[in-house]
Amino acid sequence: MSDRESGDEQHPAQRGQMVPQGEQELATKMLQIQSKRFYLDVKQNRRGRFIKVAEVGAAGRKSRLLLAMSTAAEFRDHLTSFSELYASLGPPNPDNLPEDGKLKSEVMVKDNRRYYLDLKENSRGRFLRVSQTIARGGPRSQIAIPAQGMIEFRDALTDLLEEFGTDDGEFKGELPEGQHMRVENKNFYFDIGQNSRGIYMRISEVKSNLRTAITIPEKSWSRFRDIFADYVDKMKELSEKSATGGK
């Protein structure tokens, strides 16, 4: 039985969180490590599966990270090496702290996200700081896991990955071939592609040496189709009325 089925945890809506439209929660785990609570939620949307990690401090302050399933597996492996180093360390010595506070560091990269893992030590103890940055000036977010809880955190991640796998769930089949049509002196090209944000259609209009294009996400295709079909029907009705003199 998954933690979600056991009834031990709250649904995000019960925790005061909004669940984005089109997003499905598959499982959740809650960890209490010292004065902090950590929620590990496996979610799925049109782009694939991922794990949202939320840290809730004693004062109710929340911090969140998003991990693709493959990144979560890499993070789990790093947690093992960080835990082994932590176990080999002696008691903290306030008089001999590292100059920058760092005992070990690693970096993970996934698409436009970069994650910095730093095992640190200060006057309050040892902890693993995980920072997430997004390319092109996106917001920076971070959580801090007490060092004593790294193994428990790793084991919780392992349970979720064993149940849901390490595949991000992105579309890996053959995409449809592009199509072309010519209308008078214009050429229109319809090309299907995929990037880190999902599948899309690019419609290009080429006239002489001028080229313009729009990109339509796959989730909007049905709506675009319905709008086009609506206009086709309306123009057909107008044409028929015009042909019969408006009768």
TrEMBL record:
It comes from Araneus ventricosus. GO terms for cellular component: nucleus. Belongs to the PUR DNA-binding protein family. Keywords: DNA-binding. It comes from the Eukaryota. Residues 1-22 are annotated as: Disordered. PANTHER family: PUR-TRANSCRIPTIONAL ACTIVATOR (PTHR12611), PURINE-RICH BINDING PROTEIN-ALPHA, ISOFORM B (PTHR12611:SF0). Pfam families: PurA. This is Transcriptional activator protein Pur-alpha. Residues 1-12 have a biased composition (Basic and acidic residues). The keyword DNA-binding applies. GO terms for molecular function: DNA-binding transcription factor activity, RNA polymerase II-specific; purine-rich negative regulatory element binding; RNA polymerase II transcription regulatory region sequence-specific DNA binding.
